[in-house]
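Entry 12.
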Amino acid sequence: MFDNKVIAITGAGSGIGRALALDLAGRGAVLALSDKDEVGLAETRRLLGNRPASITTLDVTDTAALNSWISAAVRDFGKLDGIINNAGLTVVAPFADCPEDDFDRVMNVNFGAVVAGCRAALPHVRAAAAKDGIGWIVNISSVFGMMGFPTQSAYNASKFAVRGLTEAMALELAITDPNVAVIRVHPGGIKTNVARNSKRIALLPGQDPDTDFAAEFDKAARTTPEQAAQTIVDGMLRRRTRVLIGPDARIIDWLVRLFPVSHMRILGNLFGGRQR
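Predicted 3D structure (tokens):
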């Protein structure tokens, strides 16, 4: 299925992005990889060995650079069969305490860059799918695109937006381009550097400022990037419109479905009790 398919991946310098690159390369894919982290991206390239791949250091919020990256991939490899919009970040702060610049940065990276990636890639993916029968638009949302979470208003907003965009695109392209699989991905806790690299701005009353939230997240995260990548690739193979990653994602999915209103109170009691 992926032999000689050209796939672009953002955020490929670590975590799920790197794991996706290694998984897809092992299945014969040709890769166009990007990340802001030049060192991490170079390490991903080293791990790929002699498998065909290009690397480009860029900030996904630089739309001109992102567009150039996609154009270069098409020029270098002759086509583009899919894109995985994976790059993301978060900040820790209640909405009232989150500076505008920090909120906007999260929105620009997690949502604005996904929009730009879809715009840049879609014409090429459509053309490839019309010729070969399959193409992919894969957007990484989160379980935080399914429920609200305290101190994560910016991340919530961005991931809910990714969910809405991807759902709408899936419905549209099912009519106009049925060979293009549009997939939204909702990872739960994944052992990546997102929590460790997050900017802590402020906490809620009662939260211990000395708590190592990254360490706590690592303890709770039960899914490895490699497992996440395998689940995403399986979703691409099956042309699913929605992919849940990890047991926590499945639990949250059912909680939100079964208790569409009271799940907020249930979660509030759960996390509020922990904070006290």
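Annotation: Strands lie at 6-9, 30-35, 53-57, 82-85, 91-92, 135-140, 180-187, 199-200, 242-245. The mean pLDDT is 90.
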